What we know:
It contains eight helices and five strands. The protein is mainly alpha-helical.
Amino acid sequence: MITVIGEVMAAGERMARGLAGLDEAAVRGDSGLAGWSRGYAASHVVRSIDAYLWLLAWARDGVQPGPRATGAEIAAAVEAGAGGSGGELAAELRGRLATLEEAVAGMPAERWEFLVSALPGWRHPAWYTVNRCWREIETHHVDLAVGYRPADWSAAYVRWALDDTLAALAAREFPVGEVKATDLGRSWRVDGEGPVVGAPGHVLLAWLSGRGPGENGWPAPPTWPLPPSPGWG
């Protein structure tokens, strides 16, 4: 977890710097997600970290730390937080990430395998919570549309996210035979009947995550992110 939380903190600081430079008009402006302002996308990340902290507290103590926020309650909190300035949103993000770093440092090693449940119901070990946070930040930083692009993703993030995404797609018979990340020296078997797809890793991940176009002949991916496969428990 030391390596992953370091990546999360670095990714979060990059996003915070991008937010801090936004004036009020830019915060209210459109993000790369239909119907989401930049402020809404940033607030969504902050409230997601709240949810991850709740999961880590559950894993640490073995009991749920009070009532879990419902989807409607989370949506209301995101909306309420979306109106802050860029500086305020950056400060909120940094504060939540500092708390997350403390939670990770305080987790007993044997509790990382404790199974928690995502809000939709699928289960995963506590350590996967930190990876989910990494994905949340990197994805929605691109969505802010402030100059951070898939090409700016770290190779470490692209490798992990492709491993995770393509394992899930293989279990769902996604119609691609093999995926090759030409810059990473990595390939993944997905479905024996489909075409071979090759491109730099960030191009592949942008396509699979709906943050970039696929080339001609590449099938449309399902809604992302997918529950991990084969899954736990």
